[in-house]
Amino acid sequence: MPSYHAPMRDARFIINEVVRLGDYSDLPGFESASRDIVDAVLDEAGKFAAEVLAPLNASGDQEGCIRQTDGSVTTPEGFKRAHALFRESGWGMLSAPEEFGGQGMPHILGFAVEEFMSGANMAFAMYPGLTNGAVRALLAKGSPDQKMAYVPKLVANEWLGTMNLTEPQCGTDLGLIRTSAELQADGSYTLTGTKIFISAGEHDLTENIIHLVLARTPDAPEGTKGISLFVVPKLLVNEDGSLGDRNAVSCGALEHKMGIHANATCVMNYDGATGWLVGEENKGLAAMFIMMNTARLGVGMQGLAQAEVAYQNGVSYAGERRQGRALTGPAEPGEKADPLIVHPDVRRMLMDGKAITEGLRALSLWAGLLVDLAQKAESEDERGQADDMLGLLTPVIKGYGTDLGYRVATDMQQLWGGHGYIVENGMEQFVRDARIAMIYEGANGVQAMDLVGRKLAKDGGKAIQAFFAEVDAECKTASDNEQLSDLAGRVGKANGELKAATMWLMQNGLGNPNNAGGAAYHYMHIMGIVALGLMWLRMGAAAVKALEDGAQTDDSQGRDFYEAKLVTGRYFGERFTPDAGALRRKLETGAETMMALPIEAFART
Amino acid sequence: MPSYHAPMRDARFIINEVVRLGDYSDLPGFESASRDIVDAVLDEAGKFAAEVLAPLNASGDQEGCIRQTDGSVTTPEGFKRAHALFRESGWGMLSAPEEFGGQGMPHILGFAVEEFMSGANMAFAMYPGLTNGAVRALLAKGSPDQKMAYVPKLVANEWLGTMNLTEPQCGTDLGLIRTSAELQADGSYTLTGTKIFISAGEHDLTENIIHLVLARTPDAPEGTKGISLFVVPKLLVNEDGSLGDRNAVSCGALEHKMGIHANATCVMNYDGATGWLVGEENKGLAAMFIMMNTARLGVGMQGLAQAEVAYQNGVSYAGERRQGRALTGPAEPGEKADPLIVHPDVRRMLMDGKAITEGLRALSLWAGLLVDLAQKAESEDERGQADDMLGLLTPVIKGYGTDLGYRVATDMQQLWGGHGYIVENGMEQFVRDARIAMIYEGANGVQAMDLVGRKLAKDGGKAIQAFFAEVDAECKTASDNEQLSDLAGRVGKANGELKAATMWLMQNGLGNPNNAGGAAYHYMHIMGIVALGLMWLRMGAAAVKALEDGAQTDDSQGRDFYEAKLVTGRYFGERFTPDAGALRRKLETGAETMMALPIEAFART
Questions:
Q1: pLDDT tens per residue, range B407-442
Q2: DSSP A524
Q3: Which of A284, A475, B63, B392 might form a disulfide with A492, Cβ 3.0–4.6 angstroms?
Q4: At what angle do helices B35-48 and B79-89 cross, to 10 degrees?
Q5: Helices marked H in B275-283 — which ranges?
Q6: What whole-number distance in Å separates Cα of residue B212 and Cα of residue B230?
Q7: B513: closest CA among A568, A343, A337?
């Protein structure tokens, strides 16, 4: 059985010493996030994840969800009780606004907690995770009545939320949506259509479920400009807040999936269900994107979380399993064989896993800070800058982060050898669960196009220029430090590759957009490398400072912890940054060859 | 439901025009492999794979194998009948020697057929696949009596074979084997112990199963020098060849696995089972390696095969599924959306899949020729050269080939979006099945060590020098051709990286073997890139020749086929060769940082 230990020390390090949450204590809500509070919250969340959620991860996968003949859905044994505990502990409301019953804590803390929950049990964490996005969409676009009716219940996790976008004929291309919404005399709408792949679409965790649904009004323009957003509760809500009739929305089937078995992925049938318009008619896509951007960061974190739990179980196996001898001679001559960790190729996978998880954690938590800065920073300028940077990083965190999450999960399974392929050992579940994160909330290729086609170009490239400048500045500072100069040189070089790739895109992508499309995926990965390099520079600087300040305790909490950061950062420079140049050379070959063949040439005869 | 079409045209092209089987018609057995025969065999095998095996792939995965209370194992519905057909059609005996009932055909043909079977149904193909290895080990090391008793039955697939190496405490490190074998008065041995992960260990496809088992005699030296090989039939064989008593070997349990559900992976209990020594006492590992080397090539082909079937289903989805519009404007304005294939990032994955599958197929089939040349070439020199090259390529085909197989399977699932994650669509099975190929028959990290630690060093690097020379020569020839010069330049450059990496290993790996261990995986991938580059140069040259010779038919069998080869080769050069440099730069950073941290530094607190 695999185990999970929330990486609390690492999260504390990033929040307190790298992102330095304390420096922002003048922001609303941040004053209450003192170091003590942060530590206490992380401790409690870590305990909850490890003790309540992790033990249900394998059993939930084995058992899956069951649709009963009446269309109701039963979650696996223990999930209902775990969600009740989750709700009572208030984990769903950590970063929600206080006026709706939330605790108003910084998102960076909410993100850290979300990683823990997802690492312990991804299928479980999705239930409250999607609710966060629903809350955000309602807060941004809902009417005051809608906010009052739904948000406090969602924040309290008394009800849970869903997002209903996909239909059989459309996933990425939401312009093809067919679900219809007809205005009724009382101002409500009647929704008819079929949605598929709806995570948490039906379940027994809460009495009510609040669906946010994309649909088309009768005379809506074709394509994405004719899509509106509706809120459709499973049980109608009376004016006094009590629950009323069952709405005409139901789960028609559960999907059989490769992984995340414990999350109910539903076909949802809307048979004249009653819903209400959220925001303006035909502006539904923009509203849904508010939800989706939150969800994308959450999905990036799922990649990290699965990498983390797989890494932990890879580490423990590498220390326990004995096989072969160190190349330099027996490390433990008294035993019949040495532990796996003596083998350089096992080390390679472990160091990759360490460099990736710690780097992605820093990047995700930085994004958590940017979420707040984009809303709460003092000046409009600062808010704008944070929002731009967050927009730029979101596809990278989602796309690059989940690609790496799958890679680490796969490597850690590999390290277990044949035992990694056996269900009971749990390593293969991490791979199956991690796999979906590359696909949903916009497949990673779509993230790459979002980055290259939208985020790069925005405001004349303001965001990417700001990113270049941050990296350059960090490299410059680090280059003066003996412990960091090697890494700084390598990250600086990778940043140079990113600049060159950006220039190439400007010169070749506008005239022939296929050049941009053919380059996008590689570009996203170069940017991911540089972004993680930036994180390793910042973590390195924080480690150097802690060591200079006299971190003394010679244990995993003290000097050793910081020294390991310096080694891991050096490793990242050595073994990750060289890819930036190769990726740049690949994308610079352009799209001509890639696009040359007709479809018939791909078929086998 | 996914479909499978054996890539017959491509196999024919490689066998007849690239490897040019006709040039070797003076070798024993090759005279009967005329073009017509090759074509007919491939056609029949392709039909069998597509019509008999492919329809059982998804159902076999869903149903799995069942161990009955009496320890017998039932394979999924249809498997028994399919194996009877397989046996009757003689697919198992294609490349087996004629004196034991085989057809004595060249291995290149057997390899092509093996790919088809494995692409259609990997779990099925493993049953006869392992038998091939058992035949080879018995032919090499068995006594005349053993050969006579077992080989004809195995060749005829009347019985099937297994290999029993792994035990709970040992996989890679076979020196830790505990299963004991005690000599009896009649010259037989009594075997006692537990083997795990035994593919096809017990099943209902054949009446008898012939186990090849590694065990230790009482006074055997410790470690790998004390291991002997035994043949242990499930049913004892009487002197007249009839079947006798049930032997004391049984399946104690079936493993629950991530994939290849339809292959019975057994815990095998030897409770005083009767066996006979194969070859010399304490020389069992060398004997088993004969079987293992065949198996490794077969596993490499499994990687290719899963990539191929996933690719085919990726291609068909990319042509049918409509989502979004071409970046250059609607490709099919009459439809609501364009097919996926218009999107460059979808193309990237398809072209990757095409370049990888066709490249790996050429490499695997070349290895098939080398198997025969190593045994049958006229001069000892030629046989030695073929054997060396085969030894060098085996870990690359297994390690790099299965890494790429998993990558293509994952990419093709990605191309299907959310639908790729749904069990019924079959794409996720290809990923789960492909995954094991990276693990078993020596995990890919072990392949890398075999390449760097054993194959490179052998005879003062004779094999790698020969490989360099082949690549250089091919690059030189190709550089004069306008259609191939770009690819030749890029492959030449990658070969330069491989040479530099080899030099670095010589200078840094001997003094500190951890440098070799830390470099091995990257080195294997560089060599894989160069090997596939060599294949693309050879395929390019064959295509140029066919076009010059006047291949006229303007369809997928004629000019279009050859022109697509040239485009795909160019793509391989553009998008794969740049990695060689990055990998070389990574490995040249050495093992110091990689090995710096104590195990405690990896644990989370």
A1: 999 999 999 999 999 999 999 999 999 999 999 999
A2: H
A3: A475
A4: 170
A5: none
A6: 6
A7: A343
Length of chain B: 605
Provide, as residue numbers in chain B, all residues whose Cβ is less than 8 Å from the Cβ of A578.
581-583, 585-586
- The conformation of residue A326, written as its DSSP 8-state character, comes to -
Question: What percentage of chain B reaches a pLDDT higher than 70?
Answer: 99
- Tell whether A79 is covered by a domain: no
Nearest CA in chain A to B312: A603
Strands B265-278 and B228-233: antiparallel
How far apart (Å, rounded) are the C-alpha atoms in residues A195 and A173? 14
- Cβ partners under 8 Å of residue B489, min gap 6: B475, B479, B573
Query: Is residue A494 in a domain?
Result: yes
Closest CB from B196, B557, B596 relative to A605? B557
DSSP-based three-state secondary structure for B427: helix
Task: Locate the chain B residue with the closest alpha carbon to A587.
Answer: B575
For B420, which of A9, A439, A512 is closest by C-beta distance?
A439
Residue B287 binned pLDDT confidence (cut-offs 50, 70, 90) = confident
As beta bridge partners, residue A257 has B422
Q: For residue A588, give how far its alpha carbon lies from the nearest alpha carbon of chain B (Å).
A: 9
Compute how many other C-beta atoms are within 10 angstroms of the C-beta atom of residue A160.
26
In a domain, A545, yes or no: yes
**B258:A343 CB<8 A:** no
Beta carbons of A210 and A229 less than 8 angstroms apart: no
List b or e across A516-541, with b for residues whose CB sees 16 or more CB atoms inside 10 angstroms. bbbbbbbbbbbbbbbbbbbbbbbbbb
Q: Chain A residue with minimal CA distance to B336?
A: A176
CB-based contact B589 A574, cutoff 8 Å? yes
**Who contacts B121 (Cβ-Cβ below 8 Å, separation ≥6)?**
B49, B53, B54, B56, B57, B60, B262
Catalytic (active site) residue A239: no
Would you state the pLDDT for residue A131? 93
Contacts of A339 in chain B (CB under 8 A): 599
pLDDT digits (tens, 9 = 90+) for B163-199: 999 999 999 999 999 999 999 999 999 999 999 999 9
Structural domain for B500, as ranges: 444-592
Say whether pLDDT at A265 is over 60. Answer: yes
pLDDT per residue over A120-176, tens digit each? 999 999 999 999 889 999 999 999 999 999 999 999 999 999 999 999 999 999 999
Q: Which of A61, A347, A557 to mutate to test the interface with B (most CBs of B within 10 A)?
A: A347
Q: Which of A503-512, A555-564, B96-105 has the lowest mean pLDDT?
A: A555-564
- Residue at A271 is within a domain: no
Query: Testing the interface with B: which of A320, A421, A525, A577 to mutate, by most B Cβ within 10 A?
Result: A421
Residues of B in contact with A337 (CB under 8 A): 173, 175-176
Query: How many distinct structural domains can be found in chain B?
Result: 1
